[in-house]
Specification:
This protein is α/β, with parallel strands linked by helices. Helix content is about 20%, strand content about 20%. It contains six helices and eleven strands. A hairpin with a 2-residue loop joins strand 7 and strand 8. The longest helix is centred in the first third of the chain and has 15 residues.
Length: about 230
């Protein structure tokens, strides 16, 4: 299941709409359970702010504490996929946790890491094992886009991920060939390739600022940046 831009906490001080986003998130999780999904993929902005209120964070944790079945395995190197985390492995394989539906999420510009330690609310969810935060670039000089390799039966998915990056910086990285994408060298044509990129990453702009147009993200363009693993 794919969901995006839930923006938990939006208008939480409004007397009428304060619970809207939490109700929406609850509905998403219930639909996932009813449809017996294998995992949930969040495309950014789970939270409306980098520092959500205690009430919103508590509600999010409470909603995520649900149990669902899963039937797939992860094949890629998790130390690369989640290398920036203190716990570089997918949550449901942690022997200290009882997680039976994985949630993967990138960050967008509302809930992106910031501050002296570059942290965000997704890092808290990742630390407790409820969300697998991926797509985070740790360098300002280059971008290494990793991939998560998933398999269920004979179906294979290569999940590429890129969290929010300032548009001009991302444009500069692509133009200066500072972007590298990993790609499976084993049966590379047998994978469904899915690139998760944020909704606020500008593709079209009326401003004079530089940005990556949709052409930058076509497979014909991206394959030039690929390195096999």
């Amino acid at each position: 299941m794919i969901a995006t831009h839930i923006d938990l906490g939006f208008m939480e001080k409004d007397a009428v709409r304060r619970n809207d986003t939490c109700v929406t998130f609850d509905e998403i999780l219930k639909l996932a359970q009813e449809n017996k999904v294998d995992f949930i993929l969040l495309g950014g902005d789970l939270f409306h702010e980098n520092k959500p209120s205690k009430k919103i964070l508590h509600t999010c944790l409470k909603l995520l504490k649900k149990m669902f079945p899963f039937h797939f395995e992860i094949l890629s190197d998790q130390s690369v996929d989640f290398g920036f985390s203190k716990f570089p492995w997918v949550s449901y394989q942690d022997g200290n946790l009882n997680i039976s539906i994985p949630v993967f999420s990138i960050h967008d510009n509302h809930d992106d890491p910031m501050g002296a330690h570059a942290r965000c609310a997704l890092d808290i969810l990742s630390c407790v094992g409820f969300v697998n935060h991926f797509g985070r670039s740790m360098s300002k000089d280059k971008i290494n886009i990793s991939l998560v390799l998933l398999q269920k039966g004979s179906t294979k998915i290569a999940l590429y991920d890129l969290g929010s990056i300032p548009d001009e910086r991302l444009y500069r990285m692509f133009v200066n060939k500072k972007v590298t994408m990993l790609r499976s060298k084993e049966d590379e044509n047998s994978w469904f390739n899915l690139f998760v990129i944020t909704g606020h990453q500008r593709r079209v702009s009326k401003r004079k600022s530089r940005h990556c147009s949709e052409d930058f993200y076509s497979w014909q363009e991206l394959k030039d940046y690929c390195a096999s693993i």
